[in-house]
Amino acid sequence: MAHQLPILTNTWSPEPQPLEDDGAAPPWPHQPTVEWQVCGQCNYDCSYCIQSKKYRVGYPTRDELDAALDFLNGLPGQWEVKMTGGEPFASRLLLDHIVPRLVAGSHTISTLTNLSASTKQLQRFAALTHGRLGIVSASLHLEFTRVPDFIARLELLRDHAHANARFVVNMVLVPDRLAEVAAAKREVEAAGFRWFGQLMKVKRGLHPYTAAQMREVEAIIGDLELATRTRSANMAPAYTGRRCWTGARYLVLLQSGDAWACRTARRHDQGFLGNVVRGQVELRPGPIRCPYSICPCTVPANRGMIEGVAR
Ligand code: SF4
Ligand code: SF4
């Protein structure tokens, strides 16, 4: 079946306003979540990286990290703190300072990583987060790693983590490497891990796949409409007009300390919540109605932030 790829339009729309009397949290099972960029630096330089090289640098100072950690550990209830980068393990403070301080709080700890850390670092991470690790989203980048090495590292992490920690392998459906992506998927699944494909993003939306490439994508992930509906792959759906609790029960915290309601809002220069270093973050009191024509990040949907999208 033909699948229309959404385009990120940049037409101006006013800053969405919180809806009155709709409750501070979704009235269905959900997981409050912060995606926290613990550093900008990455040790890879993938040709399809959505973060421009110019911004894929930098480490917050210890004081800036402490401001973020104070804010996170002060959030009421049990949130999931998903550490992102750059590459989180590129920060030498990750294991010496960040994770120990997070573990001292009450939240679940997750991470997005390219899994290039040493086996010693991975073992230490598993030990520090034991009993508190939520999800490891491991991104497999064929430009920088070999599949057997990647799987060996993931198996090591799984063997040292507690039993109910979850692991998922993400791969970009790189248009001119789809045969290799398909082969890698088979190896990942044969090793007992969940594999998750994502369409390649470019600055203003999605890469324009040809019809032939989309047939290859379909051969890898299955029926595209079904994958969109069940979110078994990131097909960058649209949730325009639905109630969304991002900014209230989900936010993105950047290495600068800036907090944003969601990544799409940020791209439209909307949904700014304040800065943790300046100590002025204000969460939204409730949901907004999504005004955006594409929702390319899976975390808000997967954590139950969006009306009609079950976790
Ligand atoms: S590992 Fe991730 S952040 Fe680093 S260059 Fe590749 S896509 Fe970008
Ligand atoms: S997370 Fe998705 S649904 Fe929610 S406001 Fe952002 S783009 Fe819209």
Mean pLDDT: 93
Small-molecule components bound: iron/sulfur cluster
What is the ordering of alpha helices and beta strands? EHEHEHEHEHEEEHHEEEEHEEH
Strand order of the largest sheet: 9-6-5-4-3-2-1-11-12-13
Quaternary state of the chains: single chain
Percent of residues in beta strands? 15-25%
> What is the rounded distance between the termini?
26 Å
Assign the CATH topology: TIM Barrel
Main beta-sheet strand count, sense and barrel state: 10 strands, mixed
Number of strands: 14
User: What integer value in Å does the Rg equal?
Assistant: 19 Å
Number of domains: 1
CATH architecture: Alpha-Beta Barrel
CATH class (first level) name: Alpha Beta
> Runs with pLDDT <50, length 5+?
6-10
Instruction: Determine the number of helices (DSSP H or I, runs of at least 4 residues).
Output: 9
Envelope shape: globular
Helix/sheet category: alpha/beta
DSSP helix fraction: 25-40%
Organism: Enhygromyxa salina
GO molecular function: catalytic activity; iron-sulfur cluster binding; metal ion binding
Region (Disordered): 1-27
InterPro entries: Aldolase_TIM (IPR013785), Radical_SAM_PqqE_MftC-like (IPR050377), rSAM (IPR007197), rSAM_sf (IPR058240)
List its salient traits:
TIM Barrel, 29% helix, two-stranded antiparallel sheet, globular, binds iron/sulfur cluster, 311 residues, 9 helices, 10-stranded mixed beta sheet
